[in-house]
Amino acid sequence: MNQRFDTILKSGTVVNQDGEGLRDIGIVDGRISAIGSLAQASAGEVIDCKGLHILPGVMDTQVHFREPGLTHKEDLETGSRSAVMGGVTAVFEMPNTNPLTVTEAAFGDKIKRAHHRMHCDFAFFIGGTRENVQDLPEFERAPGCAGVKVFIGSSTGALLVEDDASLRRIFQVIRRRAAFHAEDEYRLNERKPLRVEGDPRSHPVWRDEVAALMATERLVKLARETGKRIHVLHISTKEEILYLRDHKDVASCEATPHHLTMAAPECYERLGTHAQMNPPVRSADHRAGIWYGIEQGIVDVLGSDHAPHTLEEKAKTYPASPSGMTGVQTLVPLMLDHVNAGRLSLARFVDLTSAGPARLFNIACKGRIAAGYDADFTIVDLKRSEAITNKWIASRAGWTPYDGVRVQGWPVGTFVRGRRVMWQGELTAASLGEPVRFLETLKP
Ligand code: DOR
Known about the structure:
By secondary structure, this protein is α/β, with parallel strands linked by helices. The protein folds into two domains: 95 residues, Urease, subunit C, domain 1, CATH 2.30.40; 304 residues, Metal-dependent hydrolases (TIM Barrel), CATH 3.20.20. 28% of the residues lie in helices and 25% in strands.
């Protein structure tokens, strides 16, 4: 049979649910049509992937792209450009924009702005508040909705639900897994005097590990009481990893490359407020604890928590400086460097960035290289050594805390639904991003 495909990716090392091996991939109409030896087949385009690894598309399930309202920092176009330049094929974006994404209108507006303007596929979280609680069951079923996100400790923006009674009301009504920023607001308020003006080393002293653990414990209790599933974002402490190990039935969790790569106090001494984020980067033993969570399978997904602020904003004196750093473009290269250093396998990386998101969020047709699935690929050169630089960063913020850091392992190609959108550092297609489809929100 002389098969014909739109595109064939030829002779790449495919990393997949059946292991790692040399394969060709045939694409038709944006979907994977065949995997194997396609030497006899023809195609509109054949792309030589010899020497490269083909991974299922990397999904970054926590980014802040700032549109609407804060577009001097980032917008959906620039943020998603940064994503695909870094090998990311889909993002889940957070609701702390202005206006907050807490109404049907604000959610619909984001979808409209994103459609065919973002370079990668996308989903948006809807913010849970005291005021919109009764509408959440309807909102969380909107196409393109990643679920409900709640800040139980305050961070950038005005979203906050800090008390158990209000949180319980949210838990009672929602159906899908909800995502949480877990730092205990009461403890954060009590400890505010511990912030030292001009010294970001005091950031993890103020927002300490107890505040994170307390919040995570409260969320797990509420999840058990109400029979709901929670996703704890950006885990920052070894105690939470050990605690969550015993609660995998109700709780999933995310780690960020920042918490796996940096350690206090060194990062604050070297980078100042550029290393300031919430929850904070902590000491090396917490970092080791999060790695233990990666090794032991406790961590479910990686999210970059891409949270851009301008250099002028970050130059304010701590604690007036805002929390957050860019990350969507550096997730893949940093983690490949960790793969090359032997800290995790390539298979575990794929589990954390493709299979993990698909499993937790019930994503339709993404997260595996399988016939019938979307042809989303992150193509990487594991041997390539490259320095991360501010110049390379496509985010409007224009900086990375890893400026000048040399890594081994580099994203060289990004495919979104069969379309090559980035190749060897160049954008190669128009922006045709579409909403990620979830099993729970598919139209009947
Ligand atoms: O450091 C952070 N920055 N943590 C968050 O949770 C929010 C984010 C932002 O939006 O700037």
